[in-house]
Amino acid sequence: MDRKDIDKKLKEELGQKRYLHTVGVMYTAASLAMRYRYDIDKAMLAGLLHDCAKKVDDAEKIRICKKNNIEISEAEMQTPSLLHAKVGAYLALKKYEVSDEEILHAIEVHTTGEPGMNLLDKIIFIADYIEPGRNMAPRLDEVREMAFVDLDKALYMILHDTLEYLKDKNAVLDPKTKITFDYYRRDYDN
Ligand SMILES: [Fe+2]
Ligand SMILES: [Fe+2]
Q: Into how many domains does the chain fold?
């Protein structure tokens, strides 16, 4: 399936709000790819597909994981919506016929990040947070600017603010988010 076909399908499936977010992530990922000299088409395809499993219901996400030996962490069992990343990577491959490993990996880690992310992983993780439709996060202007100055610093800021937000809300924290933060904070703390 090419990007046009995938776009059409997702427009039907995601609903207007999530589709607009998706398009925002796609073009933000393209902009970051221009800035950091990554393949623009790959960045756009990853952005387009990153939330492709967002509307799959929780029971179905768990079923897909079990059937395909996709590991479910404790946090994901508690909050199955987190699984839309792993299930998204699975659907990108099986349903949308995208087999590029970097694209699939960027989709898989887009909710928590992970230590040692590659350039596309970082582009998608950051684009998801800063795309133009977002307006809730604190110091978004600062993070948006930093994304085009120092990608790793922007990543650190996003992880920091995400952890603060989850702490405030008493929300379930996927331990992987904290592990990612601890990995990227090394260069910036103290
Ligand atoms: Fe997502
Ligand atoms: Fe997203």
A: 1
